[in-house]
Amino acid sequence: MSEVANIYSCGFRITQPREYQKKFLEAGVRSDGRKLDEFREALIGIGPVSTADGSALVALGETKVICGIKLEVAPPKVDKPRCGYIVPNVDLPPLASSDFRPGPPSELAQVSSQLMLEIVLKSKCVLLEDLCIAEGRMCWVLYCDLICLNYDGNLLDACTMALTAALCNVKLPKAFVNEETGAIEIDFKQKVPLNIRSRPVATTSSVFEKETLYVDPVREELKHASLTVTVVTSNEISGSTVDSDNICVIHKTGGGSVNEEQIEQCISNGRCHTPFVLSLIGSALTKSEV
Amino acid sequence: MDQLLDVQLGLLRQADGSSLFKLNSTSVMVGVYGPTEVKPAKELSDRASLEVTYKPKVKQAGCREKLLEKNVQSAFDGVVLTELHPRTAIQIIIQELQDSGSLFSCCINGVCFALLDACVPMRSTLAAVTCVVDSEGEIIIFPTKRQEETALAVLNVAFESKEGAVISLSSSGVLTKSKFQDCITVCKSSCSKIFELYRIKMRQLCTKNAGSEC
C-alpha cells in the first residue's frame, strides 16, 4: 500500500510541483518533513584548503559552499590611502546544479557576490583600515572565493556562514616599514590573526502565496516561492560578548508583496537563529585550533 | 517634503514608452520596449520575461549595477501583469544621467512612469523611497550622495499603491529593529506625493492625447 502511495506521490511531485508544495505548506509542514520555522542541519569545517590563507567548508543540508581566501599586496586606492580591499566572488559552476550553465557569471552569481561584499563591509566584520600596511603605499587584498559545490537553495545563508568562518581563520603575515631603508618588509613566519570585529549571520525566509512564511528554503520550494527575504545580523564582538541585536543587511528578492508583520517575522527568525549559528562557528573554530 | 520631483514622458520616439525622471539632482532616462520578441534562453512559457538593463554614466556595468537591475526586475515582476503576454519580453533600459543620491528610488519611479507611458498592464503603481539614518540617528528622506556615504544605514523601499504593501526592500548598514521599523513608517508616509504625481501626469497625458485627436 505504501509503495503505491510512494509511486503516486513521486509522479505528483514531478507533474504538479506547485500543487505538491502547496499541499505540504498549507498543512504547516515542508516536503522534507521540517516544520515551517525549522532549519536544515548545518556543518562547518575550518581550514579544508591548506594552500589558502583562510578557508571554510559549509554544508547547509544539501547546499555545500567552500570559501577560500588568498592574500595579496597591492597599492591602495588614491582616494582611500589607508584602506585595503576585500574582493568576494561567488562562483556557481554547472557542477552544482542543472540551473547553472557554463559561461560568464550568471545574474545570481553576480548579485550574490555584491551582497557578500555589502555584508562584510556593512557588518564591519573586517575594517578596511585594518588591512593597511603603509599608508598610500601598500595594503592587503583579501580575495574571497566562494564556490558552490552543490546547490539546494538558500545560497546566501551558506555563503555568509562560509565567508564569516573563513575570515575568522585568516592569519595576516606581519608587515612593517623598515625605519632605516623605508622599504616594506613582510615576515611570512610571523602571522597575526585578522582582526574580526563582528560575525555576520544570514537567515533567509520565503513566502508562499502571500500567507505561508517558512525559513531556509530548498531549491524545489524556491521555484514556487513568491518572494524571499534575507536578514543579516551583524553580531559585533566586544570583549567576550557578542551583541546580536543589530541587523546590517536586509534584502528582499522576488515580486510578491510583503506586509509589515511578515517583515517583523523575518527579522525575528534571523535573531532567533543567530545564536545557534554563532555557536556552530565558535565550536568549529575551537576544534580547528586544537 | 521639499523634494524636487519632475518627470517628462514620451521623449524617446523609438521606444514604446519612455520617461525622464528627476529627483532633486538625480535623474535617469528610462526606455521601455515591449511586449517584444524574447531570446529562447530567456523565454517563459506562461508569462512575459522582464529584462532590465542599467547603464551607468561612466565605466562599465559591474556587480553593483547587476544588483540594482535585479532589485528593479524583482519589484516589477510582482506588479506588471506578465501573465497577459506569455513568451514575450518586456525590455527596460535605464540610463543614468546623474547620480546624486537616492538612485534606487529614482530608477523604480522612472521605470514605473515609462511602463505607464508604454501602456504595459500593471496591477498597481510603485513608489520607491530611499532613506538614511545619519550618525545622529536622524532619518533623512531622499538623501544626497554625500549623506548616503556618511550615513550609518541606507534603506531602499518600494510600496505598491493598492494596499501599501512592500514590494522591494533592501537595507544596508547597522540598524536596530526599532529604528528599522521607524524608517519603514517614515518612508510609507512619503510615498503619497509620488502616487499623486502618477495621477497628475497620467491625467495630463490623457487630456493632451484627447486634445490632439480633436
Structure description:
The complex is a heterodimer of chains A (290) and B (214). Helix content of chain A is 30%, strand content 33%. With 290 residues, chain A is of the alpha+beta class. In chain A, β1 (42-46) and β2 (54-60) form a beta hairpin. In chain A, α1 (2-15) packs across α2 (17-26), α3 (107-122) crosses α4 (155-168) and α4 (155-168) packs parallel to α6 (260-289). With 214 residues, chain B is of the alpha+beta class. In chain B, α1 packs across α2 (103-117). Chain B is globular. Chain A binds chain B through residues 107, 110-111, 113-115, 117-118, 122-124, 226-227, 229, 234, 245-260, 263-264, 267, 271, and chain B through 63-64, 66-67, 69-71, 74-79, 153, 160, 163, 165-177, 180-181, 184. β14 of chain A pairs antiparallel with β9 of chain B.
Kindly summarize this structure in a few lines:
With about 290 residues, chain A is an alpha+beta fold.
Helix-strand makeup class of chain B: alpha+beta
CA-based gyration radius of chain B: 17 Å
Q: How far apart are the termini of chain A?
A: 52 Å
Helicity of chain A, as a percent range: 25-40%
Q: Indicate the overall shape of chain A.
A: elongated
Radius of gyration of chain A: 21 Å
- Describe the main β-sheet of chain B briefly: 5 strands, mixed
Q: How many strands of chain A?
A: 14
Low-confidence stretches of chain A: none
Number of strands of chain B: 9
Give the secondary structure arrangement, pairings included:
The complex is a heterodimer of chains A (290) and B (214).
Chain A (H helix, E strand, L loop, with lengths): L1 H14 L1 H10 L15 E5 L7 E7 L2 E12 L10 E7 L15 H16 L9 E3 L3 E13 L4 H14 L2 E7 L6 E10 L7 E8 L3 E4 L3 H4 L4 E7 L2 E3 L2 E3 L3 E7 L6 H30 L1
Parallel strand pairs in A: 4-6
Antiparallel strand pairs in A: 1-2, 2-3, 3-6, 5-6, 7-8, 9-10, 9-11, 11-14, 12-13
Helix pairs in contact in A: 1-2, 3-4, 4-6
Chain B lengths: L4 E5 L7 E7 L2 E11 L12 E7 L7 H15 L11 E10 L4 H15 L8 E8 L5 E3 L3 H6 L2 E8 L5 E10 L1 H37 L1
